[in-house]
């Protein structure tokens, strides 16, 4: 069982797709149940792995490796050149991401009960998306990573384009083209490494790039390494998104159906951060060091730009979309700091923002369903009509602006702690962003909950959260608070990963 | 040459060609003598059986060593076998499409010709794959071309079809003349039409610095002439018109079989003659290396032009014409970045392209025939009218766009690897190729939008004829199989054909 | 015995080829276009025959090649004219410029 556990974990949603094939497309209830249940095995397995890992056991027992594609002729097979294996494995960081994915998938599957049409197609694509996301974090070579990465693209395109709001097709296309561009750049990086080194295994590449001494098919020059790292920065910068490459993400967050935005903001954006850490920092640490200032600057720009624009938005969804950009800046700040606390902060931020963004976007979805608008001016005084929703919204906003005791605080604190050590000036400028964050979030949320009653809010006709909708809210909030109070449930699994990264950086003082 | 020497050749190795020839002759005779009222649709099945028998006999020959008949005018080497297999599979699918073809005004008594002309065209392509002599290569090329001219104009009552055929004849004629002019110099300077001897003579002359400019001219003219056949930009002008005007099975034939044949003859001539020939009297670089920039230009321009112009097409067949121009560009990248994987990459890409493109054309034929229009809007709501067909078409489009999980992705991977592993790598070409791929998302996913997001004009269910259904299923199975487990194809290639070591021997 | 040098034949063929190419690309009348293509093919024949007699490595195969070329050119012309006839029956024109139905 151990040898195939990870595969089962990755592909378990596909069982749901198979089951859905046999359900008639009009049986709404059955389809939704099947869709939700199909996400449960992945959740259960990842929880098991998490507790297993926390118990002090090594995850390498679960690694899988099977020869998959052998390019070039058979005579060449012994040298293992140009072979692509099907290899899955987990380390602490990947485990956290898998757990995040599994949790958010189940929760957004529950949130998907609000979907109004063509449930069968919806859940099939949804489950395919989950498989892609899970696979991305476990892939041990770049080709496999890319394949899972692209697998997320197609279902997301359809989910946005078919089940989204008014301008859904435009949003779907800009999602597709921007991400297509990003993955195209990524593919070039992967193919350059694969074609020249003859392998795409991350470990092997780490060794080849940093230590060298291995005979290569064609040389990889120093200049080429910088080129590759910058290309990686662009590729994942689209996904993250980093400042000038972000416009697609705004459209998606406004137009996509709420459960998909939950997944998108919660997991898909984080693939960018994951990739940057895994490949950028993992394979090219030397070069990353040289570019770290630029990355930190980009992070500060992201943080401030997102915050300022969030401040002037009139749509709550847009506020949250810009706030996502702003918060991803913190990830970059942490990475740019290039020390232990910075990197830890970056990874914390990835997880924590995943949870917070999912919570907020879920609540926005709920509000939109009731009120049919997310315009700030029309939404005042919601606390009378929907007290629970307003309360949770406030809690989410507090978490997002980094209130101590919630997960957002820990990650922002650590990321900035890191940057203050290496570049206090930049960190000082960046810290302004935190203040603006508090301002815009409070402005928006206070306006919605306590402000003058908006035109669209009618006290009587609106239901508050129902019991099904409470599930995602409570679970997410629970995670946010637990991480805030007891951060070592995140930091313990991360120890090994960060250790490895720090060794790659040449044991720089932490 | 007496009878004994003639009989001493291993004619059995030409079995696939003989079978196709015999079936074509049989069909033309049947067509001639059968009563006019007889429905000639059944002739398609005879043609199909003929092709399948040829496939079987070819598989029987897979293990045999390289064989040369009549001083290399026919040679069965692994290169020939590998590409002949692709041609035969492609032609079999095209025949299935042709069987189900039902234009508005009907094909009436021309239906018989329709089938055996495919076979003669196929025969020409097969001769091209396994010939080591300029004369037979040329005759094969023309056999294919002339058959396709007639096929393009098969709908005699349809002005579009007539116009397509006319344009094809004129462009084809010009390209033939240009190719031939180049060939005449190749022959004249080396004094032989046998490719191997020619290569030897050319190397000797070039090593002394003789005739380099004339050989350059010949190379250039042959390349230009053949790139008409490949429909690579800037010599692609005929393709959109011809693809649009021809009957859909013929379009499929042109985009798959004819294009494959074009690449085969290009590889045969260019590689055999110019690979070992020194580029100048210093003998540092080979002729091909010093001149590969021309192929790179063709590739780059094809990718950009094909993908960009496809963006503004409303006619689905025209759009696929431009897409096929872009795909020709992708394959040319593999040829221009000559390396260890060139043959693998070209072969695999052509195989993948055959499957995905034939599958796509099968669906296109079905939809355009039933709606009597070729506008992309006819695909609106296909998902409602026939979910399975829409899903199949979606897979073909994803494969054409190079999304993982499909054969098209592995094909592109192969080409990239080939382009980037050399030192210095072909970074510019690879970047153009990948940029082209991203541009292509626009129009490929535009079709998806029509199929899945837009409401259907009619809710009428679509009835899938047997021939088209078979092609779609076969292509779908192949596209996914070679995408998920590409080693089924790659191992087959390597086990049976090695690394094409006998290509130059 | 032979006073005309090879280069003269080659230049003649080249000129003929260029005239043919020019005609094929610029003429409006489809019949003239087909004739121009024949001109180009005949330039090839001159080349082949001249090379086979006077080339740096004379051999008979050039003449055989030219036989094939002639045959193929004839077949191509026949098919071309047949298609032109069919087109003419529909459209009552042989003007290449008027063959413009197939546009996006």
Number of strands of chain A: 2
% residues in beta strands of chain A: under 5%
Name the chain pair with the biggest interface and residue counts per chain.
Answer: B-C, 51 and 46 residues
The proportion of strand residues of chain B reads under 5%
Distance between the termini of chain A: 39 Å
Integer-rounded radius of gyration of chain A: 22 Å
Describe this structure in words.
The complex is a heterotrimer of chains A (510), B (505) and C (104). Chain A has a domain at 288-510. In chain A, 74% of the residues lie in helices and 3% in strands. Chain A has helices at residues 5-21, 28-38, 40-54, 92-111, 119-138, 142-163, 168-197, 202-210, 222-239, 247-255, 258-283, 285-311, 316-337, 340-371, 382-385, 387-400, 407-422, 424-450, 467-485, 488-504; strands at 64-70, 83-88. A two-stranded antiparallel ribbon of chain A has the order 1-2. In chain A, helix 1 (5-21) packs antiparallel against helix 3 (40-54), helix 5 packs antiparallel against helix 6 and helix 16 packs antiparallel against helix 18. Chain A starts with a helix and ends in a 6-residue tail after the last helix. The model of chain A has no long low-confidence stretch (mean pLDDT 88). With 505 residues, chain B is mainly α. Chain B has one domain (12-503). Chain B has helices at residues 3-8, 15-33, 41-60, 78-99, 111-129, 134-152, 159-190, 195-207, 212-230, 238-245, 248-274, 287-310, 316-336, 342-371, 382-385, 387-401, 407-420, 427-453, 466-484, 487-497; strands spanning 67-69, 74-76. Chain B has a two-stranded antiparallel sheet. The longest helix of chain B is centred in the middle third of the chain and has 32 residues, at 159-190. Chain C has one domain (6-90): Helix Hairpins. Chain C has 3 helices and no strands. Chain C has helices spanning 6-26, 30-54, 61-91. The longest helix of chain C has 31 residues, at 61-91. Chain C starts with 5 loop residues before the first helix and ends in a 13-residue tail after the last helix. The model of chain C has no long low-confidence stretch (mean pLDDT 91). Chains in contact: A-B, B-C. At the B-C interface, helix 6, helix 7 and helix 10 of B face helix 1, helix 2 and helix 3 of C.
């Amino acid at each position: 069982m151990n040898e195939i556990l990870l595969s089962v974990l990755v592909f378990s949603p596909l069982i749901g797709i198979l089951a859905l094939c046999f359900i008639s497309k009009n049986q709404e209830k059955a389809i939704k149940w099947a869709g939700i249940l199909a996400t449960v095995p992945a959740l259960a397995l990842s929880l098991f792995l998490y507790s297993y890992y926390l118990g002090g056991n090594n995850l390498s027992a679960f690694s899988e490796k099977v020869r998959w594609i052998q390019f070039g002729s058979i005579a060449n097979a012994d040298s293992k050149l140009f072979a692509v294996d099907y290899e899955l494995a987990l380390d602490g960081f990947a485990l956290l991401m898998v757990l995040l994915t599994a949790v958010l998938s189940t929760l957004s599957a529950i949130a998907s009960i609000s979907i109004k049409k063509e449930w069968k197609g919806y859940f099939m694509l949804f489950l395919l998306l989950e498989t892609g996301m899970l696979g991305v974090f476990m892939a041990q070579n770049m080709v496999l990573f890319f394949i899972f990465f692209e697998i997320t693209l197609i279902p997301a395109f359809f989910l946005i384009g078919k089940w989204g709001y008014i301008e859904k097709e435009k949003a779907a296309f800009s999602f597709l083209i921007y991400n297509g561009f990003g993955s195209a750049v990524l593919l070039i990086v992967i193919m350059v490494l694969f074609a020249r080194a003859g392998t795409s295994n991350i470990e092997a590449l780490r060794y080849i790039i940093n230590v060298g001494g291995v005979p290569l098919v064609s040389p990889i020059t120093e200049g080429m390494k910088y080129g590759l790292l910058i290309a990686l920065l662009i590729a994942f910068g689209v996904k993250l998104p980093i400042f000038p490459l972000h416009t697609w993400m705004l459209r998606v967050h406004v137009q996509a159906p709420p459960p998909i935005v939950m997944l998108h903001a919660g997991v898909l954006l984080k693939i960018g951060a994951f990739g940057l850490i895994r490949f950028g920092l993992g394979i090219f640490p030397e070069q990353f060091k040289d570019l770290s200032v630029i990355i930190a600057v980009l992070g500060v720009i992201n943080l401030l730009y997102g915050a300022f624009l969030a401040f002037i938005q009139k749509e709550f969804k847009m506020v949250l979309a810009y706030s996502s950009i702003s918060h991803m800046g913190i990830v970059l700040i942490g990475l740019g700091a290039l020390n232990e606390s910075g990197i830890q902060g970056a990874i914390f931020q990835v997880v924590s923002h995943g949870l917070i963004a999912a919570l907020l976007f879920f609540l926005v979805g709920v509000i939109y369903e009731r009120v049919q608008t997310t315009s700030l001016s029309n939404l005042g005084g919601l606390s009378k009509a929907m007290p629970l929703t307003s309360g949770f919204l406030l809690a989410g906003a507090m978490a997002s602006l980094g209130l101590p005791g919630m997960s957002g605080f820990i990650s922002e604190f650590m990321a900035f702690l890191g940057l203050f050590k290496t570049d206090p000036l930049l960190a000082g400028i960046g810290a302004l962003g935190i203040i603006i964050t508090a301002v815009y979030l409070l402005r928006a949320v206070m306006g919605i909950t306590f402000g003058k009653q908006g035109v669209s809010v009618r006290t009587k006709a609106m239901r508050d959260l129902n019991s099904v909708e409470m599930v995602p809210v409570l679970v997410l909030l629970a995670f946010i608070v637990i991480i805030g109070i007891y951060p070592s449930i995140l930091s313990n699994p991360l120890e090994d990963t960060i250790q490895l990264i720090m060794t790659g950086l040449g044991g720089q003082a932490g | 040459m007496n009878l004994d020497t003639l009989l001493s050749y291993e004619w059995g190795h030409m079995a696939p060609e003989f079978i196709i020839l015999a079936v074509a002759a049989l069909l033309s005779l049947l067509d001639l003598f059968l009563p006019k009222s007889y429905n000639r649709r059944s002739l398609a099945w005879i043609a199909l059986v003929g092709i399948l028998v040829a496939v079987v006999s070819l598989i029987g020959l897979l293990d045999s060593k390289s064989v040369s008949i009549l001083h290399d005018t026919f040679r069965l080497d692994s290169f020939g076998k590998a590409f002949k297999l692709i041609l035969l599979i492609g032609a079999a699918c095209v025949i299935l499409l042709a069987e189900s073809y039902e234009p508005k005004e009907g094909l009436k008594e021309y239906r018989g010709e329709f089938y055996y002309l495919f076979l003669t065209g196929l025969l020409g392509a097969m001769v091209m794959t396994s010939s080591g002599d300029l004369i037979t290569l040329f005759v094969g090329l023309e056999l294919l071309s002339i058959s396709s001219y007639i096929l393009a104009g098969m709908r005699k009552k349809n002005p579009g079809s007539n116009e397509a055929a006319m344009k094809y004849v004129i462009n084809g004629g010009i390209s033939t003349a240009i190719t031939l002019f180049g060939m005449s110099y190749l022959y004249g300077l080396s004094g032989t039409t046998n490719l191997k001897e020619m290569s030897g003579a050319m190397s000797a002359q070039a090593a002394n610095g003789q005739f380099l400019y004339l050989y350059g001219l010949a190379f250039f003219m042959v390349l230009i002439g053949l790139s008409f056949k490949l429909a690579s930009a800037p010599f692609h002008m005929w393709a959109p018109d011809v693809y649009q005007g021809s009957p859909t099975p013929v379009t499929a034939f042109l985009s798959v079989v004819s294009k494959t044949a074009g690449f085969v003859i290009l590889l045969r001539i260019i590689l055999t003659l110019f690979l070992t020939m020194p580029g100048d009297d210093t003998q540092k670089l080979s002729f091909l290396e010093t001149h590969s920039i021309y192929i790179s230009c063709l590739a780059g321009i094809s990718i950009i032009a094909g993908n960009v112009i496809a963006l503004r097409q409303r006619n689905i067949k025209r759009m696929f014409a431009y897409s096929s121009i872009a795909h020709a560009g992708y394959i040319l990248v593999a040829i221009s970045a000559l390396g260890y994987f060139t043959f693998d990459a070209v072969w695999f890409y052509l195989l993948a392209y055959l499957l995905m493109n034939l599958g796509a054309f099968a669906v296109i034929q079905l939809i355009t025939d039933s709606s009597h229009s070729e506008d992309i809007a006819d695909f609106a709501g296909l998902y409602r009218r026939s979910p399975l067909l829409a899903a199949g078409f979606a897979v073909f489009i994803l494969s054409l766009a190079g999304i993982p999980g499909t054969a098209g992705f592995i094909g592109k991977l192969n080409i990239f690897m080939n382009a980037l592993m050399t030192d210095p790598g072909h970074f510019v070409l690879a970047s153009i190729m990948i940029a082209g791929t991203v541009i292509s998302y626009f129009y490929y996913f535009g079709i998806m939008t029509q199929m899945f997001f837009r409401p259907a004009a009619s809710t009428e269910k679509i009835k899938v004829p047997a021939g088209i259904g078979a092609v779609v299923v076969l292509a779908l199975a192949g596209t996914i199989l070679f995408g998920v487990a590409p080693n089924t194809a790659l191992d087959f290639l390597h086990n049976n054909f090695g690394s094409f070591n006998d290509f130059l021997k | 015995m032979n006073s005309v040098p090879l280069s003269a034949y080659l230049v003649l063929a080249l000129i003929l080829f260029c005239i043919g190419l020019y005609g094929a690309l610029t003429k409006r009348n489809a019949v003239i276009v087909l004739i121009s293509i024949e001109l180009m093919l005949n330039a090839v024949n001159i080349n082949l025959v001249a090379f086979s007699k006077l080339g740096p490595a004379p051999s008979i195969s050039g003449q055989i090649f030219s036989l094939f070329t002639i045959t193929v050119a004839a077949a191509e012309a026949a098919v071309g004219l047949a298609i032109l006839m069919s087109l003419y029956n529909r459209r009552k024109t042989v003007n290449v410029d008027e063959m413009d139905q197939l546009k996006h």
